[in-house]
Structures are given as structure tokens and as C-alpha cells.
Design goal:
rod-shaped; five-stranded antiparallel sheet
Length: 181
């Protein structure tokens, strides 16, 4: 009889002791979220305003106000700011622009495509990217601990191995190793 390697015995123990996250025969994926540029109204989750260096000056879900964008405009696009103030019938007076900009911009109706210079408003779609998969949650968490520095915020997600007969059979065999010793 062949003796099972220690790592398989440890995996067997983990499979027998871990929760299944309310999922039949779970496989634990390590994932992160990122965004892709999309068309307005097509599966978009939010939009962001970027400068020519690719720095986000406004994020429609995370930004509390328009301060960063307004400050960029006042420092880099003063003529646009003056025209905007004239159009909105307000007197342009230094730092008050930021306050006016926050108060007067209706985020639902503002023409983001009319931003000056190289500023761009991009519609974004949030997606989940699977980095790798593990038979045990402990394995997934160990990967995160070891490699988090290489990725955006990682997390585990349990998927079901339903209808994947070979993987279920392998998982059940590994689970049985602890009972055999």
C-alpha cells in the first residue's frame, strides 16, 4: 500500500473541517475586482474623470465631492473655469470656484464630454478576475497572504463543483485520506 504524502493528509483534514459556504463541493477562487472601459449605458457600473497622465480626478461612486476635479481645473484650465462661471452667471473669485463647482454641477446632467483639454470621462464596467483556484479555503488564504502585494485587494469566492464529476471524485478521495490513517 502506498502511503499518502503529508500535504494530502493536511489537505484532507482541511477539507473535512472547513465550512462549505453554503455551496455543494466548493472550490475556492482567489479574485480581485477591476474596471474596463465601456460605452455609456452598456453594463456600466460607474464613470471616472481622468487627466492626461491617467490620474482619476473624480470617481462617480467613491468621490464624496468634486473638489479634486475643481482644483485641477482652477490650476490647469483657468479659461474654461472663467467661461463656466460666466455661463452659470457667477462671479469667478479664486477659491470660491471649488465651492461653486460642487454646488452647481448636477452630476446627472453635467456634460462630462465637454471637459477641457485632455480630461476624459470614461464609463467603466466592474469585473471580477480570477487569479487562481484552491481545493481548500486555507490554501486560498495562504496565497492571498503570500501574494497580496502583487495584486489589487484579493478575496476568496466559493464556486460549486456541481456537474464536475472528476473533481468531486478527487475531492472526496482526498477527504477520505484522513479517515484511512
Amino acid at each position: 500500500m502506498i502511503e499518502a504524502p503529508k500535504f494530502l493528509l493536511e489537505m484532507s483534514k482541511q477539507l473535512n473541517e472547513q465550512g462549505n459556504r453554503m455551496t455543494a463541493d466548493p472550490l475556492f477562487e482567489v479574485r480581485y475586482k477591476t474596471s474596463l472601459v465601456t460605452e455609456s449605458g452598456y453594463n456600466e457600473s460607474h464613470f471616472e474623470v481622468f487627466n492626461e497622465e491617467g490620474v482619476a480626478l473624480y470617481h462617480s461612486e467613491r468621490s464624496e465631492n468634486l473638489n479634486e476635479l475643481a482644483e485641477f481645473l482652477i490650476e490647469n484650465e483657468i479659461e474654461w473655469c472663467k467661461a463656466w462661471c460666466e455661463e452659470n452667471e457667477i462671479e469667478m473669485c479664486g477659491g470660491a470656484f471649488v465651492e461653486y463647482f460642487n454646488d452647481l454641477v448636477d452630476l446627472d446632467w453635467f456634460e462630462w464630454n465637454e471637459l477641457p483639454g485632455d480630461l476624459r470621462a470614461l464609463h467603466m464596467q466592474e469585473i471580477e478576475v480570477t487569479v487562481n483556484s484552491h481545493l481548500t479555503e486555507a490554501g486560498a488564504k495562504a496565497f492571498i497572504e503570500r501574494k497580496q502585494h502583487d495584486y489589487p485587494k484579493l478575496y476568496t469566492y466559493a464556486i460549486s463543483l456541481s456537474f464536475c464529476a472528476q473533481m468531486i471524485e478527487l475531492r472526496n478521495w482526498i477527504k477520505s485520506l484522513e479517515q484511512e490513517k
